[in-house]
Design a protein that fits this description.
Elements (H helix, E strand, L loop, with lengths): L6 E4 L8 H11 L1 H8 L3 E10 L2 E9 L5 E10 L2 H14 L3 E8 L2 H13 L5 E12 L5 E8 L6 H8 L4 H19 L15 E5 L5 E8 L3 E8 L6 H7 L2 H6 L7 E3 L7 E8 L2 H4 L4 H24 L7
Parallel strand pairs: 4-5, 5-6
Antiparallel strand pairs: 1-6, 2-3, 3-4, 6-7, 8-9, 9-10, 10-12, 11-12
């Protein structure tokens, strides 16, 4: 007969002793897993965000949009205090996606979240998530996010933000990224070959290390940004590794002002270079767009080399 292990449920408080110091940072570092369960990708912008007299555990946005995401978590059973805080945060930040994560869920609070989903506008979606920790014999504990309450279907505004019909800005992005990816592939950036153009405001490329990407994004203020983005850098160790080679790295970008951005209130960090652009001048093939593409390709190559050398396996392109 096969030898089978014994599956047991573990008290989450044996893994995370303190909500603020332990549980919140862990969730912030694992938002991709939470997003996969919910079905909506989102990014973290800040933890312990001040909202009036209170502090929200995690604040972020739906990936590729401006839709705010708020997360309130607890290691104890759901209670009225956290429910009230969650509604306060949602109203104060005009949140689109509200996520409540708890170790245990009461019937009363499950019903409350279901009622909120039925009686709020299409601009708001509430999710109640239970954290389940399991272990087989003496193996490492495994964490599972279990949905206890959610909208019956993706609500209109959030669904449109993630996968809906293209708005004019999405059409511009798709066309721009399609042309850029073709340009990059033709200029030796093999990772761009065959890539499908997104409607998001950024495209990413991997260097083979989890949580580290070299990206191109349409930044605020009509600027194009090429960056090394460290998405899981809550202790800023990756940023500090790069910063310790600041002189050498900046010497690789002649004529550019390298921006060092630790993003202190976020779990991420980046270094980047920026270039202004005029949307109307680059929406179609033009000398201005070709010049912008050339700038992006050159600095992508530089950033990928830096990331591989200092954060990857040391290989260069």
């Amino acid at each position: 007969m096969p030898s089978l292990g014994q599956l047991k449920i573990v008290d989450p408080r044996t893994l995370w002793v303190n909500e603020e110091r332990d549980f919140t940072p862990w969730i912030a570092a694992n938002v991709e897993r939470l997003g996969e369960v919910i079905g909506v990708p989102f990014t973290v912008e800040q933890t312990e965000k001040r909202v009036g007299a209170y502090e929200l555990d995690i604040y972020g946005r739906v990936e590729g949009t401006d839709a705010p995401v708020i997360i309130e978590n607890q290691l104890t059973p759901t209670d009225h205090r956290h429910l009230g805080q969650l509604i306060t945060y949602a109203s104060g930040l005009d949140a689109a996606l509200i996520i409540w994560v708890a170790a245990e869920v009461t019937d009363e609070h499950r019903a409350a979240v279901e009622w909120l989903n039925k009686n709020t506008t299409d601009a708001v979606s509430f999710f109640l998530i239970r954290t389940e920790v399991m272990q087989i014999d003496d193996s490492k504990p495994a964490v599972k996010f279990v949905i206890e309450a959610s909208p019956s279907e993706f609500k209109r505004v959030l669904r449109d933000a993630v996968e809906g019909v293209d708005a004019p800005r999405h059409e511009f992005r798709r066309k721009f990224w399609t042309a850029l990816l073709s340009y990059l592939a033709a200029h030796g950036q093999s990772w761009a070959s065959g890539r499908r153009a997104p409607k998001d405001s950024w495209i990413s490329s991997s260097i083979g290390r989890s949580g580290v990407g070299v990206n191109v994004s349409m930044a605020m203020g009509s600027r194009m940004r090429v960056e090394i983005y460290c998405g899981n850098d809550s202790d800023k160790s990756l940023f500090n590794t790069l910063f310790s080679h600041k002189v050498d790295i900046e010497s690789l970008f002649p004529g550019e002002a390298v921006s060092w951005e630790p993003l202190e209130d976020a779990t991420a960090s980046r270094i980047a270079v920026y270039r202004p652009y005029v949307k109307d001048s680059v929406s179609e093939d033009s000398p201005e767009r070709q010049a912008l593409f050339a700038w992006i390709e050159l600095n992508l190559r530089r950033m990928r080399n830096v990331a591989k050398q200092y954060l990857g396996d040391g290989a260069t392109l």
